[in-house]
Specification:
- It contains 1 helix and 8 strands.
- It is of the alpha/beta class.
- The strands form 2 sheets. Strands 2-1-4-6 form a 4-stranded mixed beta sheet, with no helix packed on it. Strands 3-8-7-5 form a 4-stranded mixed beta sheet, with no helix packed on it.
- The longest helix is centred in the N-terminal third of the chain and has 33 residues, at 11-43.
- It is globular, with a radius of gyration of 32 Å.
- 21% of the residues are buried.
- The structure holds copper (II) ion (CU).
Amino acid sequence: MVQKTGPQVGPLEVDTMRMKLTLASLALFGLTLMAASCGSSYSSPTTPTPPGGGGGGTADVTITIVGMSGNQSFSPDPATVRVGQTVAWRNADSIAHNPAANSGAFNTGLIQPGSTSSPITMTAAGSIGYHCLIHPDMVGTLSVTQ
Ligand SMILES: [Cu+2]
């Protein structure tokens, strides 16, 4: 703290230096924030859709359960699928439904309103009639092609 010869640094100059330092670090902080937010916004718009179906919940074909309307209960109807592809039923109605093949070949289980069944793999070609186990009047057809 002993004053020597040479450039004297007055209290005003020290303050200016501190200000400059603070501004510089603020700018750096801002840049870091911007980089961080840019990074996160890059990943959000592209939601990758897993290829194929099975297991994950994404089916090749999704049939909408419209409601209790006889042979108009499911859409599309008939729905066309290829052998090996998966089908899921999405319940757009306000009550639960349970599509199942007339032959018993598949049964989606109870699908709550707003929910989608697990994907079911179609293993053989043909026209498959199905209905709702709770409301047998609800009928639809699956056209499975090779
Ligand atoms: Cu039903």
